[in-house]
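Encode chain A's predicted structure.
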Amino acid sequence: MFRVSCRSRLATWAKRQATTAKTTATKTATKSYTSHSQLPDEHRMIYEMCRKFADEELAPNAGTWDKEHSYPKQAMEQLTELGLMGINVEEEYNGSGLDALSYAIAMEEISRGCASVGVIMSAHNSLYLYPIDAFGTAQQKEAWITPFASPGGSVGCFGLSEPGNGSDAGAATTTATLDGDEWVIHGTKAWITNAYEAKAAIVFATTDKSIKHKGISAFIVPTDAEGFSLGAKEDKLGIRASSTANLIMDNVRIPRDNLLGAPGQGFKIAMQTLDGGRIGVAGQALGIASASIDCAVSYALERTAFGKPISELQTIQNKISSMVVARDAARLLTWRAALLKDNNESFTREAAMAKLAASEAATMCAHQAIQVLGGMGYVSDMPAERHYRDARITEIYEGTSEIQHLVIANDVLKEYKRNM
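Encoded structure for chain A:
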């Protein structure tokens, strides 16, 4: 009943947003928020709904899913019923039609409960649904979004990285050749989140080698196509309840109409998709940071040493202060990037800054949580060690921290050159 009610309320808000957008289309100023208490009622509703779900359904099970490397199937079905597995997709295609700020808020709270559930949700929304929603035809949206945003629906995945290229996204060796009314795709994609559960993948392949990254195109590939197979599941350090594996395409044939966007537009689609995806990963990292803070503070209040709770020791207080400052600063950067996206302003630099700051905050907070817990932080009886393992990947996927520095610096240099 709770889930049905919330989905209905989300739909009502989406309609209100659409009406408001029409009357404020000429506005250029972006409203800023600095705390959850300042958020509009609808965003607070998202926050409270996701927080409640994380506390009741995710956090109690996250440790078991991690230990067993088991996919949280029921939790993902519940997320779909809540409208979170199509949160930014318009209602016409059975989405919730909400904004990027709602997504960032939801990602943090869901990931606070379980970072694995967070990455499944992020990869599905940011990397699979978004490029189809932004670049797909009406027919493609109906076929490849609606069933994936509906209750009981499937998840999707995103195939960009390859065994021989990670940060160098333009060096794709996977090829796509037009043969009559079909594209023939051959190659392997690596490190693919949701690989084992996905029913479709966004795949980037070279259609014209002579023009390098300008010859890359994007395709929607059903995972049950003949010649499509999966590599072994990766045995990962963290986010172990989500599957990660290679997508192997041995001359996979797909309809000509499964080309996403125009030929040669693939690199642009990938980069634009990753810009928005970094807001999602920043939200995930914030969730891990928040979970680490929750763990550390709760323990510090209960654990006694030298005749008093360790929360009264200045060293512990300094750690807690540093953790909260890093988390809150990263949250402000994340909300800024989301608000810029919602206002249809450029947000590439801001998304990179948010992802960089949030991922480093997650790692730092998880590290310090273990220090606060001492020996208890090093054993699986407490969630601190899981947060530490989960945090590490946020500095790697969807652009390493090193790549984020390059994105930020290049944008700053371009701005200065324009003003010279």
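The CA atoms of residues 219 and 259 lie 5 Å apart.
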